[in-house]
Design goal:
332 residues, alpha+beta, 2 domains, four-stranded mixed beta sheet
Length: 332
């Protein structure tokens, strides 16, 4: 009787495994939830516009971190290399969503700042706001450094983006602390209305700083999401390269070309002799790709090879035109 072999089950990665990009993604999500909820709650309780704006920006970090966590989990489980050869549409979409949210927060904050200019209601206890801002700034800077370290290890673009988000958040938080001290001084001197104006103006300044993120990364993510078809001239140029190398291939089948961002992705389907070695196929592929890159330095060409159907073999004789050409070339 044949004995049944039971293979050991694959162990799942622990959530505390620091050698996985999922660890820093989960950590970013937890820290963003903690900071966002506490910041928005304190801003609402103490009636501070710029602290509420800071809380709203932090709330977008929850969405950003959730997308980060999902994208990293997706890329870790099934690398998103079938789009843009390494720069995933999934990651681009995450960057686009978080950038759009920051833009909406900016519009809302400017509106609230204009409305609050006429209010003379004093801001609440500054002590709680200052203490929590000091803790938040430290956590944000630490998250920035941690994400950069993981980005250097795993080369996931969305980790680099999230690191930039945390860096600008920490800069904003330092500005929040300085503004709080200014408001304390104005409040102690009896200039309550001036403290309120400083609060509103600071809110606009801080969201303007936060807008650097969508300006810097938003356009790139849109370019990655929106592929552009290439003009006919480009296809003719690629076909001219194929024509020059036609004696080296059995058949040319298809060409696909699109532009995403600054990169031009070119996919070419060709047929080679069924008994070609990897070295022979690589030699032809290298020659074609180098000629394409000479014409277009931003091109990323890929040659997809399929073996021939042996139609050139009849009467037990191989009449392969490619091999015949190589033989004649070798005799020259």
């Amino acid at each position: 009787m044949q004995q049944k072999i039971i293979l050991p089950k694959r162990r799942k990665d622990s959530i505390f495994n620091r050698n996985s990009p999922l660890f820093v993604a989960r950590l970013s999500f937890l820290v963003s939830v903690l900071i966002a909820l506490m910041t928005f709650l304190l801003g609402w309780l103490e009636d501070s516009l710029f602290y509420k704006a800071n809380g709203l920006i932090a709330l977008t970090d929850i969405v950003n971190s959730a997308i980060l966590l999902t994208a990293v989990a997706h890329s870790n489980r099934e690398p998103d290399s079938f789009f843009n050869y390494g720069y995933g549409k999934y990651e681009s979409f995450g960057i686009f969503v978080s950038s759009s949210l920051i833009t909406l927060i900016t519009i809302y904050t400017i509106y609230e700042a204009v409305v609050s200019f006429g209010k003379i209601v004093p801001i609440g206890n500054f002590t709680y706001l200052i203490l929590f801002s000091l803790v938040s700034a430290s956590l944000m800077f630490w998250m920035h450094k941690t994400l950069l370290r993981y980005y250097n290890n795993f080369q996931l673009p969305i980790l680099r983006y999230d690191a930039e988000v945390w860096k600008y958040d920490s800069i904003i938080e330092i500005g929040v602390i300085l503004t709080l001290f200014l408001c304390v001084i104005l409040d102690k001197l009896g200039f309550t209305s001036a403290a309120r104006i400083a609060d509103s103006v600071s809110a606009i300044i801080f969201v303007a700083i936060a807008m650097r993120i969508p300006i810097k990364f938003g356009k790139k993510s849109i370019d990655q999401l929106l592929d552009r078809t290439m003009p006919e001239k480009f296809h003719y140029d690629i076909l001219s390269v194929i024509a020059e190398n036609f004696k080296n291939i059995c058949e040319f089948r298809n060409i696909y070309a699109r532009q995403s961002g600054k990169d031009i992705f070119v996919e070419i389907d060709v047929v080679l002799p069924y008994d070609f070695t990897l070295a022979e196929a690589y030699e032809i592929e290298k020659k074609i790709t180098n000629e394409i890159r000479t014409m277009y330095s931003n091109a990323i060409p890929r040659i997809y090879v399929v073996p021939c159907s042996k139609d050139c073999i009849y009467d037990n004789i191989n009449h392969c035109p490619v091999k015949k050409w190589k033989k004649e070339l070798g005799n020259l």
